[in-house]
Write a structure and sequence with these properties.
Length: 474
């Protein structure tokens, strides 16, 4: 700093007139101190020698000038000024600093540079990846980088999925199969399995699906047979299918503990697999004379019988039946009519309830109620009338058919009664009696009873009325 001061003094000499306003005049200092005004050139280690011929006044002027210059230099450097090589002060463009306390949370630049916008356009700061919508270009490799490795340029990076072990296999595949029982989309299951690295557990998929289907409904077994047929080829091979069924035959004694009919069901799966060309026809023949387990022998015998029956015209494709959600409406209506006719002959309400549950169409029970009432309207005796009332009462108490399905069935009859009356002249009268009896037994409520339509009748009044036709309802 002293060197800078000396350089500035040499470049810009200080005159006495500039300092006259800040310092005492020479006469005042001389009169006060009694020292002659002479040049003082002796200086040792920054201390003025008063015994020399120079005056104290000039020494004070120089000291004062140094302090003023030092103060000015410090202020200029703070504002952005700097000294050139020859000692000149170069003015900067920076503004005077402000108190940091007044702008403690201000994210703008404190040096006064730029347009006063937030730092990095608001995309800076800790934990920030960049401004919204910014797309980064691919970073070029710098060959001069000390961490540069030439062998990494030709590397291809891929996502590696570790193979499933036996412990994680069931946890991963079981939810996929159970979800398939709900939606029935084989393509979705194939995509999910293709995304897994099954590895040696590939042949375990069919056996796991069949094991879950043994404890499920008939419609789920049909879905499982379709799943195996669609997976064979894109995801699984014939060898995987044969290994899987071999494992099922070995585990039949354990499966029979939870599902007593497991041998017959596994035999049906084998027959269906042969029919779908998943297994070769020589698969069953390869077990002849080599089976010691009675459960495996029963399963193979069942498969052999079904295959022989298929040659006589039996369609193994429909041995499990079709789920209610996938069954045509006409077929459902036909099966419900057969169920009602069987019930009229047997009179077993429990068996009728079980058969209705096996159809697996709780959303379509209003059709069963509709067909039952129409059967009553078309019948001639009181037997069908009483038995249908008893069946509907049983369905209502056991909650096999909900109140909403029961109401929709009655309302459909109300809407079609005009057309039914064309074939059954007494339909209005029978329906009114049936609705009153249903209300008495608690099958329907009073609101639904009051909605029952009544047929108006034509009646001629007495001759005094002139033979005018009078319309009224009874």
């Amino acid at each position: 700093m002293a060197t800078d001061c000396e350089a500035w003094l040499n470049a810009n000499p200080v005159e006495a007139e500039d300092l006259s306003d800040s310092f005492l005049s020479g006469d005042e200092d001389t009169g006060r101190l009694g020292i002659s005004n002479k040049n003082i050139n002796n200086e040792i280690n920054g201390n003025w020698l008063t015994s020399s011929s120079n005056s104290i006044h000039e020494a004070r002027l120089k000291a004062k000038a140094k302090r003023r210059l030092r103060k000015k230099l410090l202020q200029g450097l703070w504002e952005g000024d700097s000294l050139s090589d020859n000692g000149d002060v170069v003015k900067g463009t920076s503004a005077a600093p402000t108190s940091p306390k007044s702008k403690l949370l201000d994210r703008k630049s404190r040096l006064g540079k730029g347009r006063g916008l937030p730092k990095k356009g608001g995309a800076g700061g800790k934990g920030v990846w960049g401004r919204s919508g910014e797309v980064y270009e691919q970073e070029e490799v710098d060959e001069k980088d000390p961490n540069y490795d030439e062998a990494q340029e030709n590397c291809v990076y891929e996502t590696v999925v570790p193979p499933l072990d036996e412990g994680n296999f069931e946890k991963t595949v079981t939810p996929i199969v159970q979800e398939y029982f709900e939606h029935g989309d084989t393509n979705e299951v194939a995509e999910l399995l293709a995304g897994l690295n099954l590895g040696p557990m590939r042949s375990e998929v069919p056996s796991l699906a069949v094991s879950l289907a043994l404890e499920a409904k008939s419609s789920h077994r049909e879905l499982t047979s379709r799943l195996l047929a669609d997976l064979c080829g894109p995801v699984l091979s014939r060898g995987d299918m044969e290994n899987s069924f071999d494992k099922l035959l070995r585990e039949l004694p354990d499966l029979a503990l939870d599902t007593p009919g497991a041998p017959q069901l596994v035999g049906q799966f084998i027959a269906r697999a042969v029919s779908d060309q998943i297994l070769s026809r020589s698969y069953i023949e390869g077990y002849k004379g080599r089976v010691d387990c009675e459960y495996a022998r029963a399963a193979l015998d069942r498969a052999t019988v079904l295959l022989k029956m298929s040659m006589g015209g039996l369609r193994i494709e429909n041995q499990w039946g079709t789920g209610g959600g996938q069954r045509p409406v006409k077929q459902l209506i036909k099966e419900m009519n057969l169920l009602l006719k069987e019930y009229i002959l047997s009179g077993d309400c429990k068996e009728a309830e079980r058969c209705l549950k096996d159809l697996e169409v709780p959303h379509f029970h209003h059709e069963f109620v509709y067909e039952a009432i129409v059967m009553v309207l078309e019948s001639k005796g009181q037997k069908t009338f009483k038995m249908v009332l008893q069946l509907l009462k049983s369905l209502s108490v056991s909650s096999v058919s909900t109140v909403d399905q029961m109401r929709r069935g009655y309302e459909r009859v109300y809407l079609d009664i005009a057309e039914i009356n064309i074939d059954v002249p007494r339909a209005y009268f029978i329906l009114e009696q049936f609705v009153d009896k249903s209300f008495t037994m608690g099958i329907i409520d009073v609101k639904l009873r009051d909605l029952c339509p009544c047929r108006g009748r034509k009646r001629f009044v007495s001759e005094g009325d002139g033979g005018v036709v009078k319309l009224e309802s009874y």
